[in-house]
Design brief:
By secondary structure, the chain is an alpha+beta fold. Helix content is 54%, strand content 18%. It has 13 helices and 14 strands. The two termini are 44 Å apart.
Length: 507
């Protein structure tokens, strides 16, 4: 598929070639037109020669002596023809450029206009005139005289009636072609507007064809008015590499928007559902406590249940607020060097107590000391989220195993391994989504069931510390959640770099 740049280059190249061809045709036409004008001037020169011969013949019929023979050159008895005073006076009154020749092609008279030219120009005219065929084509002779500004177009007219004068060669200045608006200029005046209009038309057509896919893109994008129309996509073939890449990029962006809108709709629906349940329970408990026939103990029990639901709803709102602040980058962490060894031991002691209540065995198999940069309170929340999740979805008699071990590349890993119900392969990619709970987890229906925000918050805490959380699980085989965090270097320099990077990642 050709690029838009290549297509425009080729199209404008063809348009330029077309304009050059039209311009060359105009020049060719102008050249031929000048030849036509030269032929017309040649006829004017012939007419002028005819008029000059007519005057000479008329004077001869009147009996005037126009020529005389006198000795010339060597030998002394050689006689040449010369113009008499009568002929000179007669022809000097006739304007123009012409030369009179005798039978020997000797110049016997030249007009006033010829005599005013330089010797070099007169010699060039004489040479050209001698070689002119009677009644033949005219010949153009350039004139170098500075004030002349052109050339002479010579034409010969023969005469057989006179005794010594055989022909007259007359000339017409070609300055007529140069000093008046020439055919070339006229042709350009006609052709240039046409070329400009043709160029504008071709450019408009080329631009329209090139921009047609862009117009299509605009129409498709304008058709996306709300989240319900995000399923629309641009065509994949838009005629050029650049526009196809633009379409692919826009499709990818719209796809991400569609995913985000879908997640937002699910989030809104899930949040509404999770808020509706405790509110419904609270209302029922309050109504039961306010019933006139309710005993004191029964009313107290209803209020205690309402208080529990209030605490449950408060936890939900706190979780939502935490994620909202994290999304906006407004959640500041109290960053300082944190020793993970004591923190994990403290979390382990809490986990043992939680495990005893659930009838599970909690163990700490590996504990390697390490320093990280971060917020100790949020790290404790991260570890406890993973531990309580493991205990929540592990049956009585099961086990939860904790470990803290170093990895290659100056990283430390906190791992929680359980023998619980596990997560199916189809659900595993979504475990860190907000309000996500696999069907098996939902089916437990116990009072310990959470809202599906714990893992989303855990992922944010890990990322805010420059780390990551990964999950491995098989349905019915248990799960493994691993938190990987960058360690502070012993010398403190690299540790400060890690701390700065974690600060940027956590907003």
């Amino acid at each position: 598929m050709a690029t838009l740049r290549a297509r425009l280059t080729v199209a404008y190249g063809f348009a330029l070639v077309g304009n050059v061809i039209l311009f060359a045709g105009a020049l060719y036409f102008a050249h031929n037109a000048r030849g036509t004008q030269l032929r017309q001037l040649g006829r004017v020169a012939v007419d002028q020669g005819e008029r000059t011969l007519f005057l000479i013949r008329a004077a001869a019929r009147e009996g005037r002596t126009l020529t005389e023979r006198r000795p010339c050159g060597e030998p002394r008895d050689q006689l040449c023809v010369f113009a008499t005073t009568d002929l000179v006076e007669l022809l000097d009154r006739v304007p123009g450029y012409y030369v009179v020749y005798d039978r020997d092609d000797r110049q016997i008279y030249s007009s006033v206009g010829i005599r005013m030219l330089s010797d070099e120009d007169r010699l060039a005219i004489d040479r050209a005139a001698v070689h002119l065929a009677p009644d033949g084509e005219a010949a153009e002779v350039p004139v170098t005289e500075k004030n002349f500004g052109g050339g002479l177009l010579l034409a010969a007219r023969p005469d057989s009636a006179l005794r010594f004068i055989t022909r007259v060669v007359a000339g017409v200045p070609t300055t007529v072609l140069e000093l008046t608006p020439s055919v070339l200029v006229g042709t350009m005046v006609v052709i240039f507007p046409f070329l400009i209009l043709a160029s504008i038309g071709v450019s408009y057509a080329i631009a329209g064809q090139a921009l047609e896919p862009i117009e299509q893109i605009i129409n498709e994008v304008e058709a996306i008015t709300d989240g319900r129309s995000l399923h629309r996509r641009l065509p994949s073939d838009l005629g050029s590499d650049e526009l196809s890449r633009l379409g692919t990029t826009l499709n990818a962006m719209v796809g991400r928007l569609e995913t985000s809108f879908g997640a937002l709709r699910r989030f809104t629906a899930d949040a509404s559902h999770e808020l509706k349940t405790p509110l419904t329970v609270m209302r029922a408990d309050v109504e039961r406590a306010m019933h006139p026939n309710a005993a004191g103990s029964e009313a107290m029990q209803a209020l205690e249940e309402a208080l529990q639901e209030t605490a449950r709803m408060s936890d939900l709102v706190d979780g939502l607020l935490t994620l909202a602040r994290a999304d906006e980058g407004r959640f500041d962490l109290h960053r300082e060097p944190v020793a993970l060894g004591p923190l994990v031991r403290d979390v382990y002691e809490t986990a043992v107590i939680l495990g005893e209540h659930a009838g599970q065995r909690v163990s700490l198999t590996v504990l390697e000391e390490a320093m990280v940069g971060g917020d100790a309170h949020r790290l404790r929340q991260l570890f406890l989220n993973l531990i309580t999740n493991a205990i929540k979805y592990t049956a009585r008699g099961g086990s939860v195993e904790l470990s803290l071990s170093r990895l290659l590349g100056a990283e430390i890993a906190f791992t929680v391994r359980d023998t619980g119900i596990g997560i199916s392969a189809s659900d595993l990619p979504y475990v860190f989504d907000r309000f996500w709970r696999a069907d098996r987890a939902r089916s437990r229906g116990s009072e310990r069931s959470g809202f599906g925000l714990g893992l989303a918050i855990s992922q944010w805490i890990a990322q805010a510390h420059g780390g990551r959380v990964t999950a491995q699980s098989r349905l019915g085989r248990g799960s493994i959640f691993t938190v990987v965090l960058p360690m502070l270097a012993p010398d403190g320099e690299a540790g400060r770099d890690v701390l700065a990077n974690a600060r940027e990642a956590g907003g």
